[in-house]
Amino acid sequence: MHPLIQQGSAWSLTETGTDKEQIKQNETLFALANGHIGTRGSLEEASRTPDYSYSEGTLMNGFYDTEPITYGEWAYGYATHHQTVIPLPNGKRIEISLDGETVDLETGETTNHKRTLDLKKGMLTRSFTWENAVQVEIERFVSYDYPELLAQRIQITPLVSNKELTVKLVLDDLAEMGREAKGETDVDPRIKQLTARRFDSQKLESSMGKMLHITTHNTGLHALVGAMTCAGDEWTLSIEKDASETYALQTKADQTVELERFIGYSPIFHKKEEASQEVETMEILFDVIKGLGYDQVRAKHVYTMEKFWALSDVEIDGDEALQVGLRFNIFHLNQAAGRDGKTNMSAKGLSGEGYEGHYFWDTEMYMLPFFLYTQPETARKLLQYRHSILPQARKRAREMAIKKGALFAWRTINGEEASAYYPAGTAQVHINADIAHAVYAYIQATDDEVFAYNEGLEILVETARFWVNYGHFDERREGAFVLNTVTGPDEYTAIVNNNFYTNLMAKHNLDYALETVMKAIAKECGLDVLAEIGFEKEELEQWAEASEKMFLPYDKKTKLTMQDDSFFHKKVWDFDNTPAKKYPLLLHYHPLTIYRHQVCKQADTVLAQFLFSWEFSTDQKARDYAYYEAVTTHDSSLSRSVFGMMASDIGDLDKAYSYFMDTALMDITDMQANTKDGVHAANMGGTWMSMIYGFAGLRVYDDTVHFTPQLPKQWQRIAFTIQFKDREIGVTITPKDTRYILREGKPLTIYHNGAPRHIVNHKK
Amino acid sequence: MHPLIQQGSAWSLTETGTDKEQIKQNETLFALANGHIGTRGSLEEASRTPDYSYSEGTLMNGFYDTEPITYGEWAYGYATHHQTVIPLPNGKRIEISLDGETVDLETGETTNHKRTLDLKKGMLTRSFTWENAVQVEIERFVSYDYPELLAQRIQITPLVSNKELTVKLVLDDLAEMGREAKGETDVDPRIKQLTARRFDSQKLESSMGKMLHITTHNTGLHALVGAMTCAGDEWTLSIEKDASETYALQTKADQTVELERFIGYSPIFHKKEEASQEVETMEILFDVIKGLGYDQVRAKHVYTMEKFWALSDVEIDGDEALQVGLRFNIFHLNQAAGRDGKTNMSAKGLSGEGYEGHYFWDTEMYMLPFFLYTQPETARKLLQYRHSILPQARKRAREMAIKKGALFAWRTINGEEASAYYPAGTAQVHINADIAHAVYAYIQATDDEVFAYNEGLEILVETARFWVNYGHFDERREGAFVLNTVTGPDEYTAIVNNNFYTNLMAKHNLDYALETVMKAIAKECGLDVLAEIGFEKEELEQWAEASEKMFLPYDKKTKLTMQDDSFFHKKVWDFDNTPAKKYPLLLHYHPLTIYRHQVCKQADTVLAQFLFSWEFSTDQKARDYAYYEAVTTHDSSLSRSVFGMMASDIGDLDKAYSYFMDTALMDITDMQANTKDGVHAANMGGTWMSMIYGFAGLRVYDDTVHFTPQLPKQWQRIAFTIQFKDREIGVTITPKDTRYILREGKPLTIYHNGAPRHIVNHKK
User: Fold this and answer.
1) Which of B176, B245, B455, B491 is catalytic?
2) What residue ranges do the domains of chain A occupy?
3) Model pTM greater than 0.90?
4) To pair with A204 at 20 to 30 A between CA atoms, which of A138, B21, B142, B555?
């Protein structure tokens, strides 16, 4: 059992003691977020205890600044600006002193130090005794009910009387500089930060304790940050010059005293006036919260979390550690999703600054499925974000000399390309098809015609257009439609021709567009959308022909699917002579060394076959799986879950189980050795997918759900719920059978191991 | 006739008038250099007349500073530092005043402004009349006899009497900032300058007028710069605070007065003490020069230039403009070559700061042939430079995970890779074979066994080793030896497999090494070299096998040589719909757009076939030529000369003539629209090659020279001299016949149109 996981606690992670390294990693694991704000699980006194802290930031989804990208050698069409989320004023710092001596881990003896992340309640609690003089208990949560709100309750039990106890609460008006402030530099390309992270901060008059109007330097984004403390009459308040509040009282032994602290982070505004108008809204909100009091706000939060789990939990009987890991991943996944249609899910969620808070294909291919089948309304919001950045994607396509259609940025916050290395950035044009795939999956899963014939239609048409303009019919391949000079998901192979994944995804993208446009025309829905984007009927033929003739590289001799035209012509990486410390390869070998060999960072062909598993024979999939697994390093956290699911698909349950263990515990065990920079949100989605698509065998095609459940021998039962076309379906798999219960919605015919099964809601 | 070329002047370029744009471009055309220093042809008052100046730098070959390269996204093995030549204190500035009014083009009326670059004498003269008050004549040359020396003679004829004439001479102790100082920024990736160009400058006590010890900030290079003025007694000297010298006198109408100015640039030193010791050496040198006086130093220079031309001139009867263009190119080529074994030839020579003063493959493949056959001792020095950077090349190979052998930097000054864009930098591993090719050609042309079994042997072995470690035997190609993930000469196609040029060159590289090592063993020469680099006999077999099985991509169906494995699978660029202003493509299209299409920046396959033309049938060459010419933009200045020579090779003399016109006049006509940043030195070499390899049809194989002369119908005669194995051979081609005269050296059997011809030196 991992030290964070305690026997009998299937709903929590518990840290005991004060191991410096573990506390730093736990800043990520214990991060709390609600899709709008996220705050790392740093110690309240982190700024005073650098040895016990890494980056204590509080982030707001989509609140970023830019900086020009400097290239050693520039070329036309390169991304122009870094976009980087910036830590906000940090309201959770607390400084407790007893007779002038400050409570922190570095100066006094701390005993019984314990922190618990309660996944069920969405609550982080900490308790410890300091110098045998005070017992401290701090509880923290980020509210889903009030997306602006981070709440803290501080309970202190003095063990001695007649001392002066003070609690200082600070809302910094400067951004913290995290690791950089400590002079730590890092060349890991997966972390990139602005060289100067700055915003202007203006103190506002407000009925709240302190309120700041912050404005980013280059992007001109505005937000308000405010803090309010609720204290009983026993406390005496003094306000210092820097506007920090200090509460003081004389201790009485064994008598617990309490402070409640609320920090508010407004939505993001593009105009200063909008932010100014928000002051009143924030004040009203905080009045409401003051009126309710900490206990009621907390109770509401716990209730919301319970509702969430009722629809989102995936139960495993048979392995408590995996159960915790799975819940932990679902918990963080839920915390990561922007729900305002203007923001998305960054690769690290809101748990850390890795990857600069950028949105990647990770959202659509790894994280969205969870929301599709448990919170379709959130899935819609995430896709609406993509729709909102279509203008930037169209502009980008023009920059790439694509005359019609759109090309989504490989990594972005504001919709513009922010990838400074195009071979593993812009060249990954598959992101277009990934987004189209997600749009189609959403339509399939929800029958949401409003979305389908508005945002959905526009995305599908604009992405389909891209493919016919990017590729061409290759006469030397009997007129097959080819897509040259692309990079597939596997970033250890770049700038290749006819990446199988890309071509297969593009083919489906074309089909999705074709189908949706034809339906739109038939139903006379979305015709205004088509007119606005200048759709012409001849395009249908272009798409149909490109799809039909799409080249899918296959080696007849070995009967293997080829990752791309040239993959098999490369030398297989010398794995035997590559020591463990040389992984991940990207940190130890030049791209040309890596690209020259058969070596994969992650699932590529295998991912394509997972997504359309019904299009391939099991023999084919098994053959390809064996081949590609042998050359895959899993240096990307996006890899193992796919190999796990495909292991289920080809019937290798032991392997599927082993991969599942890795994915479920990836961050808890720090498998990728960089959890400190943030959770691996895509892998978290992949963990959920491993349960639902992997062990339960969910596939969605022919307008309904298909299951082929396989329960690992180590488990006695798995159970979960999915939403599908306004229905709620409970699934319980045991070694004996699988039960499908329609809890909400109209009857439906689903498929179990290929056989139809009609399910009806008996409640009604 | 181009305005710079005057009828009847086959040895000069003349600028008349004061056209701002032309004067800026002419800074490059009128640059004077000697391989050690180079000074741009700027006006003496350039610093006061920014509208008439672009970059007035004086450069020293190999005097550079570094700056860390910033990458938007870093990866392992990336080049770490920019290396950039830095302009030195500029001693050629002159400020003439008459009664306090300063003579410059912007403040007064200038008439009869004329500048002449005398190619024969290696001399730049300028004359003009200002405000009808003074006539000025300034002459400038950079000495080959004293590589440290830049000399100026200022002659002023006042047209009015009793005015105060002053001449102020400045040796700036700050580097000029060129275009950047003027706030001009440029995103052209072909120009890259340090963001801050700095060196420290220390004034030294010296018997010379002024002497500075300059030290670069990061590279710690040292050099001395000194200036000395010789003036008659009629002048009164005053020295100002900034150590500038002002000479003054009262004018007498029509009486010419004169000043002589000498500026000295020491060699480069790596240690401060060495530079300090050089002070005395410089003083002695300048004492000698003072003793000789300007006229004698000038006479010596003119004599040296005459000797140079006696061996290097290529005469054309029939087109004066082309004759001037050709001589101009030879003139600049000669000016560019470092001759100390520690420096090389930068892509712009010493005529401008384009490409940062870096050395590329341009040296070996385009510029070295001229020296090989006219100044073999200079060719040797250039190759010794490559030998001197073998340690850096070995280190680079290790960084690229190549266990044995060396990989030369794509662009460099100090031997370390300075290319910040590896797809068109480090990926051009063909540079290894290019250098080996030049080494072998040098050995062939000179029979220099000392070099062959020392530096030559080491380079050949270390480059051959690279190939067997970089490539592998591809089972899917019947065991053919393949070289994947490379970029060939054509930079519009990057990161491909089996670039024909690279593979063919590598094959020959392996053969060269094999042959030379076997000879060394047989002659028992260079065995110490082999021992020192750990040579093992099994390597010979490896090289032989890789060479024998080298994969050379060929399309049987169309009978075309394939530029690489996938070139023909790409879509042909839409040339018809690409307006002229969109060239060069690299400034208007993203690399992925360019790489995705069949479009070449320059000769690639055609270059390979030129280099080994005897290995291919004329049919094959003609077929490939037609195909590749149609998809080549010549956006690289390295392209046209090759197409020209191959046009000769396949018998299309009209085309050869047309390309020759372009290459001969490329910089004079500013064909590439960036001559202001420096001459296109490789094209200048290519122009010479076009005469010798093109029209005269020189090929060197089977240990002798082969000619297949073809005289364009526009010409009556061409004549030139080559050095070959200690012989001097004069070649004269007329419509009637070709005469080969052995002027120096032992008899030799050469081949004329495939037939042997024995030539004997009748002088002796």
Assistant:
1) B491
2) 12-312, 315-695
3) yes
4) A138
